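Figure 2 data, in text form.
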Amino acid sequence: METYGLEQYGITGIKEIIYNPTYEQLFEAEMDPALEGFEKIGRAHV
């Protein structure tokens, strides 16, 4: 696994870094049902 040099900031376990994702890519990643805890972002109820 690559380290990306982020361990100095306490960031570990990086699987992938995506540069300049589209809104759709961000939305799909944030709505992934496999996410837990602080990783998970829900939809706002208006």
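Caption note: The helical segments are 23-30.
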